[in-house]
Amino acid sequence: MANSSGLLKLGTLVMFVSMLIMSFSHGGQAQISCDTVDNDLFPCLSFVLNGGKVAPACCSGIKTLLSLAKTKTDRQSVCSCLKSVAQSATDGQLKNAAQIPHLCGVNLPYKISRNIDCTK
Q1: pLDDT digits (tens, 9 = 90+) for 83-113
Q2: Distance (Å, rounded) from C-alpha 29 to C-alpha 38?
Q3: Torsional class of 51: left (φ above 0), alpha (ψ -120 to 50), beta (otherwise)
Q4: Are 10 and 41 within 8 A, CB to CB?
């Protein structure tokens, strides 16, 4: 049960970052795997689960992922990787994830929600 709970919570975080990187627009071929997303965002998991202070490695991971997601296809791939898992996130997890952009100094042009459309 702990493993599926942790995966669910990681999915919430990934949904947040998926929305974050979808805000940047370029053209091209996807090269970002779900493993890359998981690895870059893993340092954010504690904050999504428990709140508190965002680890510097979390902000670094988000910025790294943003720099990798140069194409629309990249952003769509990242969004699709874990969207289905993120749909089961708790409201508290989404609230914590929504705070991360501000705390990391990253601006998002939209509200983080379960209703993100990965095709846009």
Answers
A1: 655 677 898 998 898 888 899 998 665 566 7
A2: 20
A3: left
A4: yes
Looking at residue 94, its amino acid is L
CA distance 9 to 42: 10
Helices 72-86 & 34-41, crossing angle to 10 degrees?
70
Q: What is the pTM (predicted TM-score) of this model?
A: 0.71
- Distance between CA atoms of 57 and 70, rounded to whole angstroms? 21
Structure tokens at 14: 């990934």
Q: How far apart are CA 14 and CA 12, in angstroms?
A: 5
Domain limits, the chain: 33-119
Is CATH 1.10.110.10 the right assignment for the domain spanning 33-119?
yes
